[in-house]
UniProtKB/TrEMBL annotation:
The lineage of its organism: Eukaryota, Metazoa, Ecdysozoa, Nematoda, Chromadorea. Residues 1-21 form the signal peptide. PROSITE patterns: C_TYPE_LECTIN_2 (PS50041). This is C-type lectin domain-containing protein. It comes from the Eukaryota. PANTHER family: MANNOSE, PHOSPHOLIPASE, LECTIN RECEPTOR RELATED.
Amino acid sequence: MKFKAVYFWLLVVLNLTLTHAFICPNNGQLIPTEDTCVYVRNDPTSYMDVIRRCDNSSGGPAKIQNAFENSFIFTQFSALIDSPYMYIGVERKNATTWTYADGSPLTYQNWGQGEPDNSNPYAACAVMTVDGKWRANNCTGPAPYACTLNGDNYQCPDGWVYNRTATNQGFCYYVQKFLYQDQYNWVLYNFAEAESICQMMGAHLASIHSPAEDAFLQMLLYSNVQNMNVTSPCDLQFAWIGLTGTGILGNGTWIDGTPFDYTEVTVPFIDVVDWAVANDPGCFAGWMPAYESNRNARLVCKMSAY
Ligand SMILES: *[C@@H]1O[C@H](CO)[C@@H](O)[C@H](O)[C@H]1NC(C)=O
Ligand SMILES: *[C@@H]1O[C@H](CO)[C@@H](O)[C@H](O)[C@H]1NC(C)=O
Ligand SMILES: *[C@@H]1O[C@H](CO)[C@@H](O)[C@H](O)[C@H]1NC(C)=O
Ligand SMILES: *[C@@H]1O[C@H](CO)[C@@H](O)[C@H](O)[C@H]1NC(C)=O
Ligand SMILES: *[C@@H]1O[C@H](CO)[C@@H](O)[C@H](O)[C@H]1NC(C)=O
Ligand SMILES: *[C@@H]1O[C@H](CO)[C@@H](O)[C@H](O)[C@H]1NC(C)=O
């Protein structure tokens, strides 16, 4: 009996280990001891297109968070690519501040001497050069590129994102992307339409239950619309979440039926309305009541992970 119990738990643990050590899809290289896939691609293109192509592998332009990752990616670059430089996922947001492509602050930097040279306003993309160092470059010159993909996302359907530290509760998130200005992608919806789209995917508009989950969602929703070539770009920054109420605890409901146990709203809104979230440093960040209740926004859905 005792032996059987030990054997059972061994199998359970072994099974967990096996499911966690996944294989990178599309010939990605798994960074040893990390759950991150790297894709170094030798098909030169502009940085905007790099974002789209990385997204096609469910990833983003390479987020390099420590020296080990930099050296792993540099090794791939040296081995596979004959080019003086390649794009990585580091962008300039204003005159002096550089961030990762997802808008989060850099936790690691490996600039070459005199870099980043911020004197050229068009040098807003970082490239890795042949010594593994980074340099400020324009974003238009066609160059090879590196993408990274967080392996945890494979607990979610394609195109959905998982975050172990922020949610620790096993949820996947889907953000409608603005990668292409076309009739399928760059479209805004009202609250009811947005919820019905989430429901078609077996989900609901996202609910938020902790400061960490809030921070994670705002990171996902990060956008840089003030740099988009459209009129009134700030109108494009909002995404519906599943909250209806005044924004104050005890007076609102999440459309997925979970308890209303977290809010970042400190002053109640006068009416019961639907809520959206934004995160654009050039426009507005935070939860926003849809007092023009026909305010149209994109959507962020949430469902349980596998
Ligand atoms: C993304 O993948 C689809 C299907 O494989 C392909 O048709 C499309 O051209 C790809 N887009 C980019 C930007 O690579
Ligand atoms: C650039 O953005 C950062 C972070 O948002 C901010 O702290 C800094 O003051 C900004 N700098 C300029 C010159 O606008
Ligand atoms: C972009 O940068 C590359 C490499 O630094 C350079 O060769 C190219 O002329 C630049 N393009 C523009 C439009 O400045
Ligand atoms: C998860 O979310 C936290 C914020 O709560 C963020 O700091 C972290 O970078 C996220 N991780 C990934 C892999 O997105
Ligand atoms: C912005 O868009 C307009 C209309 O689509 C176009 O004529 C113009 O060249 C664009 N400007 C830039 C800098 O891309
Ligand atoms: C919620 O707020 C609305 C609008 O201010 C108010 O009419 C209603 O009585 C409130 N309900 C509760 C349970 O506080």
